[in-house]
Amino acid sequence: xxxxxxxxxxxxxxHAQEDLPNEACGLLTGTGDIVKGHYALTNVDHSPEHxxxxxxxxFHVLKxxxxxxxxxLANYHSHPSTPARPSEEDKRLAYDxxxxxxxxxxxxxxxxxxxxSLIDCCMCPYEIQII
Length: 131
Prior knowledge:
six-stranded mixed beta sheet, 131 residues, single chain, 3 helices, alpha/beta
């Protein structure tokens, strides 16, 4: 389970909405299973169907997390018009079994956020607890 404060959930949703019609992406940092930091990154692909992190922004987050005694716990991206489930591309690009992959869907009336972890090459549902 990953624990995410409500204000960070709200910030992820806001970032996803602001980046429409493109996918938004970012990183979450923290300790143990508790998220303490949210970093909205630039989708350098500027695409509604896929994303890539800006490498300089990614490095900045890693440095800042380490300085705070934290680590990167999860990455997130939005699906502007599809459900909150891993696409074939999401599955193909998932490589880190220590990372939690979070998807926010804006396809319905209300945003939906789901998490996944990589287990034996399978993207499996992962529980999010909002704190």
